[in-house]
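Reading a protein record of the kind used here takes little practice once its layout is understood. The fold follows as a row of integers, each naming the local backbone shape at the matching residue. With these conventions in mind, the following record can be read line by line:

_____
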Amino acid sequence: MISVYQLKPKFQQLLRPLTNGLAKAGITANQVTVFAMLLSIATGAVVVWQQSLVWFYLLPVVLFVRMALNAIDGMLAREHNQKSKLGAYLNELGDVVSDVALLLPLFMVPNISPWFIGAFIFMAVLVEFVGVIAPMVGKERQYQGPMGKSDRALVLGLLGIVLPLWPAVSSYLNYVLMGVVALSVLTMINRIKAAL
């Protein structure tokens, strides 16, 4: 099923010169992973602290930077012999922590049910958890869509643009979140089926 994740190889090609430069400068994959996580936490905290939808404009910018950093840390690990057990933990934990940190500002948006936001966050964690379990049954880590990490980033990035421009849209976001949760359930099923 189609997913933004399928664009990753082309994105990596664009980032390869930068990645090679970082490797020559002594920057490690784990440092990039931790920086991406801290950037996400700081962004989520700032948006919540400011209590203004205008600060949602930060989300698409930071989500794009985070996507680039995630691609870079993977290339550093694979192409520059930086794979490590600690890196595997940091990569998976960093993704989940970053997702939660960047989704928390949705709680301050008027007219959105906190139950739907909570379900979105819960399913984001569960989808990644299901993907990580695959190696335990002898398969590779699963990344199927239609609502994987990159797809959630796209949805949240679009909300970061739309909400400050048209706050009235928040009245319809419960339906959007219902759709995202449903797609997350489908993603979980796809990942389980692929691993089995």
About this structure: Residues 60 and 157 are 4 Å apart (CA to CA). The domain at 4-195 is CATH 1.20.120.1760 (Four Helix Bundle (Hemerythrin (Met), subunit A)). The chain has one domain: 4-195. The mean pLDDT is 94.
